[in-house]
Each structure stands twice: as structure tokens, then as C-alpha cells.
Design brief:
heterodimer, A: alpha/beta, 2-enoyl-CoA Hydratase, Chain A, domain 1, two-stranded antiparallel sheet, 9 strands, 34% helix, globular, B: alpha/beta, 43% helix
């Protein structure tokens, strides 16, 4: 390094050098937690992609999230994709971009997987596919997940992350809430467990249907969980909402979650729950 | 039946003449006994529920209410139910199933009420419960969309065997204003949004979201036409066993 370089020598030219490094820090070297605003070196988020300060679980793609849970899996219904029923302007291009970005045909990954010693039907929504929004293709894949789980006698573990029903497919997106709910009902009637893990964000039509219909519901630390969006509520009541509004911790207090389970504990906790339900022996009433 | 323009549908759906659900109920049914309360923590004036006769048949009725006077409209949040309202509706529907009464739900709501308290009381969670339970009720359910039917707040009363709509009513994933504000950050583009959303009942019928379109005039001609059709539908329901009914309901939503 040239000692006289006014942009690099902090001793001789502190102001210029500071300016230089402010502009030239490589992108992505530091991350900011959207919840507690801590700045940290990106590697500190670790394998599970969580904030080292507050434990918030960052939004990650479904494929990346899958790797945090298991190495043994087999994908189901990977080919289901949209028909663009409203012929919505620029929608197919948006879908194509999302498909390239996430390596998914629509906003959810589903399949059969091993969690520890247990086989489960697993679903993971992808927040990078148009905000994990619920559209007919998503609904179809989720419905099939529960149908296959019912046929194969498997519990379902579903990780949700969604902005709600997808606008570009209009009312048909809304109908998915009923369609998936129905498959969940059949799965429950077969006496099988459904456990949901609500990730950041779980909102709108997803909260108002399958995310809230599980037998056991966990939240991830500081995940946004709610029905109506913050902006809509603030406009309705004409005041600012507190920062912790719709935080998983608050939702737990209000009685809508069973526990907050950080990512690094999820596999162990899932195994405990699955072990309990695998020990189920009571066959229920035989109606004559 | 001629297809209406979206602007006509929007103003027709939101017409003041449709706001007073109490008047619509008393026109449609011979006698109606209202019930109150969700048996958890309150009552919501935006949700009317009770038991009624139509022709010589007993039914249970659940209906969203906007209200006629300003004071009532403020109390009902302009027809937007809070969690207590959805719990009240589900309570009546479950009783109806237990006591073998068909259910008629009448809808005119922009959506579930979005405020801090409703969120804290689990607005999304009660809607999820309504959807799940309604799909399993072993009694016939007929839904008639009178004006607006917005989002999950409407679906929570519309997981039904038959869904009818007035010519100038709308059933949407979100209000056109909300849609425009999400897509283009400008609620004033509601009419363009409505155009793209295909809010016209004909499109919905073509895509099997609804089953029947009802002329606007039926709501006003002393309801004889509408009454006759409802009674006929109840007769049709009588032909099915509960298992057949539930299987048909399941197929209907499975194909969407």
C-alpha cells in the first residue's frame, strides 16, 4: 500500500480514508436484523440463518430451509404450476422470475421426508416466491400433501411463510383456503397429527386457514404472525401500532401458539412430538 | 341476462338499499327469532343470527349486517365482523347441524374488521375455524351474496353447498381498493382493479365459484321469486343424505 494514498491511509488522511471505506465495503458483508436492527458480520447468522442478537429467523428459500431439517427426502408434485386464469398483465413473467429464483414451480415445496427416525409429509412455503402467496397451484400442492399423507398414514409438518392469498389469481386464490382446509379435515379424521411451524411472515388468508388449523402450532422467534396487514390496520384506527404488534411472542401470549421454537431446536423438538404420537395405541370408538 | 359493467356492479353491491340486512331478513322469512352472543366474551352487531321459517320450513340464518342509520353502521364497522361475530355465526351453525336445520347465510361485508383488538382476539384464527367446521356440518348450507363479499371474512360464511349471487354483487379476494393499493399503491385505481379481478358474477359462475345469479329485482318484488327459489332449493336438499351432501360439498371445493 502506498503510504501517501490519501484514500487508504487512515493516519495521514483519516477523513478521506473513512469516506473511501464507507463507499467500498463489499456488499453483503454485514447484515442488519429487520427486527432488532443489530448489525453483524454475515457469517454470524450461521447454518440456521438467525439473528445472533434477538434470535429472529431470517427469510430463507424453501430449498435452503429443507436442508436445515433433513437430508432424506423425496419431492412430491413438483410440476404443478399456474394456469393464469385471469390472464393478468405481466403475471407469467413474474412467475418465470420467481421460478428461476426459487427453483420451485410455485410458492411451496412438498414431499416425504425423514425427521430423525420418523417419516413425515413435509411442506415448506417459500417467501421468495411472490411473498409465498397462496395461489391455486400452491393450494393444489398443499391439498395433495394432505391427501397423500392421509393415504400413507403420515403426520404432516408444514412450515408457513406467506403474505396471504395471491392477488393475480383473484377469487380462485381465496378458494384455496377452503380446498386445503378440507384436506386437513380428512387427514384429522384419519387420526393423524398435523403440526405447523409459522415462520416470518405468516399473514392473511394463510393465517385465516391452514396455518391456524394445525393440532400443534409453533412460531419462530419474532416472526410476524397476523391476519390484517399493519398498514391497513393503522389506516383503519388512525394511529401507529406498537413495534411488537403481531410478533410471535405476542401471539403466544394471546393464546394462539403452543410454543416459540428456535430453528436450532426444531428437529429435536419435532422428534419428541413425533415419538409421542407414534406411541398412539387407542383406536377410538368403533361406531356400529 | 346482460353482463353489467364493473362500475355498475360496484355501486350496486354497495348500494344503501342493501345495507339494512334486518329488513331483508324480515322480507325473506315468515318469522325470525334472533339470538345474541358468542358464548365466549360478547356479541357483535355486525353479525345477525337466529332461527326462522320460510314457507313451512325451519332454517337457521346467519347474516352480516351493515345497518341503516349512521350510528348502527359505526357499531357494525360498516358490516365488518369482529371475532365475536364469527364465533356467534359458528355457534348457530353448529346448533343448526345438531338440530337438523338447514342453514341460510346472507352476505354483505367488505371483509373482517381490521383493528388491533380483532387481531389480538384472533381474527385469522376464528375465520380458519369457521372454514374448517363449516365444511363438515352435516346439514345443507345455502349462501346468498347480497352486496359485497370480501376476502376471508366472507369465505368464513360461504363454505356452502349452494352459493348464489345477486346480479350486482361482488365476491372478491380483497376489496378492489385493497387490491389496487397492494398492486399499485393507489386505492383510487379501484375500478381498474375490479376490471382485472373479474368481479362480474358471470365469470365467477363460469369458474364454478358460485352456482346461480339472481336478478336484482327479486330482492324488491316482495321477495316472492327469491323465496320460491330458496324453498325449491331446500326441497332439493331433502333428496340427499348427509353423506351425499358432504361428498358433493367436498367435490365442489376440491375442483377449485
Amino acid at each position: 500500500m502506498d503510504a501517501n494514498d490519501r484514500f487508504r491511509n487512515f493516519v495521514r488522511h483519516p477523513k478521506d480514508a473513512l469516506q473511501h471505506y464507507k463507499i467500498n465495503v463489499p456488499q453483503g458483508l454485514f447484515r442488519t436484523c429487520p427486527k432488532c436492527h443489530a448489525h453483524f458480520y454475515f457469517r454470524k447468522a450461521g447454518h440456521y440463518q438467525v439473528c445472533p442478537d434477538c434470535g429472529y429467523g431470517f427469510r430463507v428459500s424453501a430449498h435452503q430451509r429443507l436442508k436445515m431439517l433433513t437430508k432424506t427426502y423425496q419431492e412430491w408434485d413438483a410440476q404443478i404450476s399456474t394456469q393464469d386464469p385471469l390472464q393478468f398483465p405481466d403475471y407469467l413473467k413474474k412467475i418465470k422470475d420467481a421460478q428461476n429464483k426459487t427453483q420451485l414451480q410455485d410458492s411451496v415445496w412438498t414431499g416425504k421426508a425423514k425427521i430423525g427416525d420418523y417419516s413425515v409429509a413435509l411442506g415448506i412455503m417459500d417467501p421468495y416466491f411472490i411473498m409465498g402467496s397462496l395461489a391455486p397451484a400452491t393450494g393444489e400442492r398443499l391439498t395433495k400433501l394432505f391427501e397423500r399423507a392421509t393415504q400413507q398414514n403420515l403426520p404432516v409438518v408444514l412450515l408457513t411463510a406467506s403474505g396471504g392469498a395471491r392477488m393475480q389469481e383473484g377469487i380462485l386464490s381465496l378458494m384455496q383456503m377452503a380446498k386445503v382446509s378440507q384436506a386437513i379435515n380428512d387427514h384429522r379424521q384419519a387420526h393423524l397429527l398435523y403440526l405447523a411451524i409459522l415462520m416470518d411472515p405468516t399473514t392473511g388468508g394463510v393465517t385465516a386457514s391452514f396455518a391456524s388449523q394445525a393440532d400443534i402450532i409453533w412460531g419462530e422467534p419474532r416472526a410476524l404472525i397476523g391476519f390484517a396487514g399493519r398498514r391497513v390496520i393503522e389506516q383503519t384506527i388512525n394511529k401507529k401500532l406498537p413495534r411488537d404488534f403481531q410478533n410471535a411472542e405476542k401471539v403466544l401470549q394471546n393464546g394462539f401458539l403452543d410454543a416459540i421454537v428456535p430453528r436450532e431446536q426444531q428437529v429435536a423438538q419435532l422428534q419428541r412430538v413425533l415419538a409421542i404420537f407414534a406411541a398412539q395405541t387407542w383406536r377410538g370408538e368403533q361406531v356400529v | 341476462m346482460k353482463e353489467s359493467k364493473v362500475s355498475e356492479i360496484m355501486s350496486g353491491a354497495r348500494s344503501d338499499s342493501k345495507a339494512d340486512m334486518k329488513a331483508i331478513i324480515s322480507n325473506l322469512f315468515d318469522d325470525f327469532v334472533a339470538v345474541s352472543g358468542d358464548r365466549v366474551n360478547g356479541d357483535d352487531p355486525a353479525m345477525i343470527a337466529g332461527y326462522a321459517t320460510i314457507g313451512d320450513r325451519a332454517v337457521a340464518v346467519v347474516a352480516t349486517n351493515k345497518g341503516q342509520e349512521l350510528e348502527e353502521r359505526l357499531q357494525t364497522h360498516f358490516g365488518s365482523p369482529v371475532p365475536a361475530g364469527y364465533r356467534k355465526a359458528l355457534r348457530i351453525m353448529q346448533t343448526a347441524a345438531d338440530l337438523n336445520l338447514p342453514i341460510i347465510s346472507l352476505i354483505n361485508t367488505p371483509g373482517a374488521y381490521p383493528d388491533e383488538q380483532a387481531e389480538a382476539e384472533g381474527q385469522g384464527q376464528v375465520i380458519a375455524q369457521n372454514i374448517s367446521k363449516m365444511l363438515q356440518l352435516p346439514t345443507p348450507i345455502l349462501t346468498i351474496i347480497i352486496g359485497e363479499a370480501g376476502s376471508g371474512g366472507a369465505l368464513a360464511l360461504a363454505c356452502s353447498d349452494e352459493i348464489w349471487m345477486l346480479e350486482k354483487s361482488m365476491y372478491t379476494v380483497l376489496s378492489p381498493e385493497g387490491f389496487a393499493s397492494i398492486m399499485w399503491k393507489d386505492a383510487h385505481l379501484a375500478e381498474q382493479a375490479a376490471e382485472l379481478m373479474h368481479i362480474n358474477p358471470e365469470w365467477l359462475k363460469e369458474h364454478h365459484v358460485i352456482d346461480k345469479i339472481i336478478p336484482e329485482s327479486w330482492l324488491r318484488d316482495d321477495n316472492n321469486q327469491l323465496r320460491r327459489h330458496i324453498i325449491q332449493q331446500l326441497v332439493n336438499f331433502d333428496q340427499l343424505t348427509p353423506t351425499e351432501l358432504l361428498n358433493k360439498r367436498k367435490q365442489k371445493f376440491r375442483s377449485l
